[in-house]
Specification:
Low-confidence stretches: none
Distance between the termini: 43 Å
Order of helices and strands: EHEEHEHEHHEHEEHEEEEHEEHHEEE
Number of domains: 3
Number of helices: 10
Structural class: alpha/beta
CATH superfamily of the largest domain: ATP-grasp fold, B domain
CATH topology of the largest domain: D-amino Acid Aminotransferase, Chain A, domain 1
Strand content: 25-35%
Length: about 350
């Protein structure tokens, strides 16, 4: 089987590929064809992981689809794994028109428009009580004091779009907010939210043709290269816990139900719902990714291989069980990750 993997310069596509080739059993012999827009992307040169590699135009370039179609035809690609947000958006639009060059597991484009914009998602969910009190604002706003009037003097701010904690920082006063806006000229729209001091959680939900089939949850504790980011958040978890907390999945599922209903979209796709707890331990939804995230292979190594699940569904594997399943882990299971290293799955009690 030949599978196209896009955006292999990022950790998430490589994590997905590892889940298939080195952890799962169904697709170890598959030929993975890699693409990225950056010729310096490390994944393009990982020959043990990818059989062929191509530098391609950006997804919003007019030449993009011609290049993709040529690669699909040349390698007789049967399925594409599309993970960078920009490409997910473009592939979803094309899928809606029935013009994809090969199979791909993608959400409805109306969902993408809501979830890629964190401010839009927050506004839609505000009345549900599932998201923290928040205020969206433009960098040129002359009414920043209103944010403090609404949220108090201690809140979290980040870019309303983008990943890896872009433009994020804990704010403790008007001057720090003004300075942070000034040193982030690339961010036009920000989202300020009530600061939540509790656990940083993630729920993974796999929907297929109207039905939730697989779910699991975990906790992000520390981040790779956290010292280089003022917020301490870089988007790549270095230490995390794999959890057995069905109530978290219930919150994530309720959130997705509201999003699907608002968008009038089918329940289809893979989503990572991020949550943060307040001081009382109540979880609030802070972000929803329309794709896998970088530590997907940690879940796979512990028995929750969502990468393999996704492809088995896409390819119509008749042995795939269609009953809903919450992946369970041995109590106390943690994972450790670092740059250029395979993750380690172990018991927290065994830490030195």
């Amino acid at each position: 089987m030949n599978i196209l993997m896009t955006g292999v310069g990022g950790p998430t596509p490589r994590s997905f590929a590892h889940s298939l080739k080195f952890i799962g059993t169904q697709y170890r012999n598959a030929q993975l064809i890699a693409t990225d827009t950056n010729r310096l992307a490390i994944g393009l040169y990982q020959n043990a992981l990818f059989s062929h590699s191509y530098v391609i135009p950006r997804a919003d370039d007019t030449a993009y689809w011609k290049v993709i179609e040529e690669i699909v035809e040349k390698h007789k690609i049967e399925a594409a794994v599309v993970l960078p947000e920009l490409e997910v958006v473009e592939w979803s639009k094309r899928a809606q028109k029935g013009e994809l060059p090969c199979k791909a597991f993608l959400p409805d484009p109306s969902i993408n428009g809501i979830l890629v914009d964190k401010a839009a998602m927050t506004e839609i969910l505000m009345e549900s009580g599932l998201v923290p009190p928040s205020v969206s604002f433009h960098r040129d706003s002359d009414k920043l004091q209103l944010i403090f009037d609404e949220l108090g003097s201690d809140f979290w701010v980040r870019s309303s779009s983008g990943t890896s904690g872009l433009g994020s920082l804990r704010i403790d006063g008007l001057e720090s907010l003004q300075n942070w806006i000034e040193i982030n000229p690339g961010v036009q729209h920000f989202l300020a939210s009530m600061f939540l001091p509790g656990r940083n959680l993630a729920c993974k939900l796999l929907y297929w043709q109207g039905k939730l089939l697989r779910a699991a949850c975990g906790e992000r504790v520390n981040y790779i290269m956290a010292k280089v980011a003022p917020s301490g958040i870089t988007g790549n978890t270095s230490f995390g816990r794999l959890l057995n907390e069905p109530e978290l999945i219930d919150v994530a599922k309720k959130t997705m139900d509201l999003v699907f209903e608002y968008a009038k979209a089918p329940k289809h796709g893979f989503f990572t719902v991020d949550l943060k707890e307040d001081s009382a331990g109540r979880p609030f939804v802070t972000e929803i990714n329309v794709r896998h995230v970088a530590f997907t292979q940690c879940f796979a190594a512990a028995g929750a291989n969502f990468a393999e699940d996704s492809l088995r569904l896409l390819m119509g594997d008749p042995s795939f069980t269609m009953d809903f399943k919450i992946y369970a882990f041995e109590p106390g299971t943690i994972f450790l990750r670092d740059v250029d290293e395979r993750p380690i799955i172990m018991k927290e009690e065994d830490l030195l």
